């Protein structure tokens, strides 16, 4: 008898730890996979903050073969190359995060720029990389020689635009934090300063990230952006055999800079039913609720990463301050939400009453990584960079240059006044 969808999700969750493979076991993994006739694809990366670009890259890598093994760059090697403030997250957290992606079959820790031993042990059929990795020297002649000797080949993909690395996000957040600090100081002196006059601080948008390989998984097919599409989602699930016995679970959150705590929480929700729909508020609503500079990642980009998780069946972007209307339309069997002090009056909320009225139930659970939040990640990302910006501003040569530029601006302004 085939397993139910819920049973399959539970089995996947129980076996997730098996996706992380010790370096010493790579040769055995390779032998087992090749014995089954599987084509092994290998790629490497830091994956400090999982972005839509990463998800597309890994999906296209996976489409080149049968099994994708990701070589995650070790903490030691990243710190050596990028400095003591990196990586943003340790290798355990980064490894676990990769196991939640449906395109990733196995993860092993390697040293950045030194894939040689891994190539020898894993003997991949394909080493998948991009032009930036080649330019950075992370795949050298020795690596190519070892790959060829093992019967494999190098596949290089073009960088997908817009390209944004973890460092690009850090620059984005730091510029925002710097502007906020300056604005706060000026406001305290009763000097007007309009943040909305700075157009560059929109959420980071990674574009549609459509995979070039049609065989690659495309998260866009699982993203719904309006109520009519949400209703179509319900009808489609019914057409595919959604019976009264199948359970629909709904969970919502901003999920800005998705991390392992988010992934654990959403997976926990998925285990309560057969189909999981994740709701995320639009950029406009998050900005209204959390203030200028949030979200860091655009609504579509946030949805894209969520839809790449192997336990998510759909992501709905709603343009409301609460999920009440969505719950009324969706009528889920289970509404999964966080158990925290701010949520203690849940049973008196409209959301609770809506779910109960339609015959569903509300299930709560604590945060799965209480010491890790998007806000803490954002602040950590920005802290050092903000200090560097202030240090740069205090440089005497910089001050003199700004004074000269200021004088030019004053002369232009006076000239314009005379003309009028």
Automatic annotation (TrEMBL):
Gene3D superfamilies: HUPs. InterPro entries: Archaeal_FAD_synthase, Cyt_trans-like, Rossmann-like_a/b/a_fold. One of its GO terms (molecular function) is nucleotidyltransferase activity. It holds the Pfam family CTP_transf_like. Residues 43-128, 251-378 form the Cytidyltransferase-like domain. Keywords: Nucleotidyltransferase, Transferase. This is Ethanolamine-phosphate cytidylyltransferase isoform 1. It comes from candidate division WWE3 bacterium GW2011_GWA2_44_16. The lineage of its organism: Bacteria, Katanobacteria.
